[in-house]
């Protein structure tokens, strides 16, 4: 064998850099860790928000209890539903044909609910719209049950309706000149169906406040017999 070292031809140098660059690496799995972590964080946040939403919903959502009762008002020719310990008083009320009292409250309370047909016994019957009738009824009820002088405040109007009834509600408070008296609260509503019109009035004060959701529920439960 010829000894190339003696021929004067130098052997080709080995480029170790190119050899390292040309080496084929074995396939590796692609796992973008930063994207996985971001997805986990987003999923966790959404789960926390969903749980918090459910907690808030069940904490603040108030619905009628299952043992709500249906009563008939033969004079007004209607039936209606109540809940939360509100039951009819057998005495004939000054206004309307049904008076509801909360049996869980004591006798020394301004909390009272009245129901009846909107007829000529009330000044509000002269109004042609439910909104105007509810407002006039509210003033009449307030002045009768809270005759002390004061200032009306926090007046609110609202449209109430369901599949069979349409109407309006009116709410306001009275801050009395005599500051020792708690602020009065008055809620009234008038609903209509065909040619029939009915009303509800709910009085209360700072100590036993008006439950507007309860008032709306009872009003919209009215059904002609």
Can you put this structure into words, describing what you see?
- This protein has 225 residues and is of the alpha+beta class.
- The chain has two domains: 32-61; 69-224, Protein Transport Mog1p, Chain A.
- The protein contains four helices and ten strands; from the N terminus they run ααβββββαββββαβ.
- The chain has helices at residues 16-21, 33-60, 130-145, 212-220; strands spanning 69-73, 78-82, 86-89, 98-102, 112-117, 150-161, 166-176, 184-193, 196-205, 223-224.
- The protein has a seven-stranded antiparallel sheet, with helices on both faces. Strands 1-2-10 form a three-stranded antiparallel sheet.
- The termini are far apart.
- Residues 4-9, 14-20 and 57-66 have low confidence and may be disordered.
Q: What's the SSE blueprint?
A:
Blueprint: H1 16-21, H2 33-60, E1 69-73, E2 78-82, E3 86-89, E4 98-102, E5 112-117, H3 130-145, E6 150-161, E7 166-176, E8 184-193, E9 196-205, H4 212-220, E10 223-224
Antiparallel strand pairs: 1-2, 2-10, 3-4, 4-5, 5-9, 6-7, 7-8, 8-9
> Percent of residues in beta strands?
25-35%
CATH H-level name of the largest domain... which superfamily?
A: Mog1/PsbP, alpha/beta/alpha sandwich
In whole angstroms, how far apart are the ends? 124 Å
Number of DSSP E strands = 10
| SSE string | HHEEEEEHEEEEHE
Write a compact overview of the structure shown:
This protein is of the alpha+beta class and about 220 residues long. It is built from four helices and ten strands.
Which features would summarize this protein structure in a list?
4 helices; 225 residues; Protein Transport Mog1p, Chain A; 10 strands; alpha+beta; 31% strand; three-stranded antiparallel sheet
């Amino acid at each position: 064998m010829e000894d190339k070292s003696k021929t004067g031809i130098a052997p080709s140098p080995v480029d170790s850099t190119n050899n390292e660059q040309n080496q084929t690496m074995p396939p590796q799995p692609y796992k973008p860790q930063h994207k996985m972590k971001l997805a986990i964080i987003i999923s966790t946040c959404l789960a926390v928000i969903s749980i918090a939403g459910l907690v808030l919903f069940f904490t603040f959502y108030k619905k009628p209890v299952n043992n709500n009762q249906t009563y008939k008002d033969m004079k007004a020719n209607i039936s209606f539903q109540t809940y939360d310990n509100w039951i009819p008083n057998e005495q004939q009320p000054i206004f309307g044909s049904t008076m509801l009292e909360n049996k869980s409250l004591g006798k020394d309370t301004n909390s009272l609910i009245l129901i009846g047909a909107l007829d000529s016994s009330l000044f509000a019957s002269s109004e042609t719209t439910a909104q105007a009738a509810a407002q006039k009824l509210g003033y009449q009820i307030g002045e009768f049950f809270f005759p002390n002088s004061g200032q009306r405040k926090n007046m609110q109007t609202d449209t109430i309706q369901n599949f069979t009834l349409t109407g309006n509600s009116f709410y306001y408070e009275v801050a009395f000149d005599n500051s020792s008296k708690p602020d009065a609260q008055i809620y009234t509503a008038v609903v209509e169906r065909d040619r029939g019109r009915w009303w509800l009035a709910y009085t209360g004060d700072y100590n036993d406040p008006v439950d507007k959701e309860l008032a709306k529920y009872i009003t919209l439960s009215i059904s002609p017999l």
